[in-house]
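A quick aside before the break. I want you to see a complete sequence-to-structure record at least once, exactly as it would be stored in a machine-readable document. Don't worry about memorizing anything.
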Amino acid sequence: MTPNNEQEFHDWWNGDILPTNPYPKDSPVFWAWAGWQMGVKAEREACAKACDGWMHANGNDCAAAIRARGE
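That is the input. The structure line, written in tokens, reads:
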């Protein structure tokens, strides 16, 4: 884990930035779901960073389109 990713993990773990979670907080599935959601967010951001500045043929920004999928 790079220092930046480690800090992001600690911010998530200790913070209150969890997405809406349909499971009871005291259950293991709550944390599994939250971890999965944060993994999806991290992967989406990595893909967006990979294409930062690229434009589709129709003029849409590739990175903005990827980031918008999580909105």
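Two observations worth writing down. The CA atoms of residues 1 and 7 lie 10 Å apart. The chain has three helices and no strands. We'll return to this after the break.
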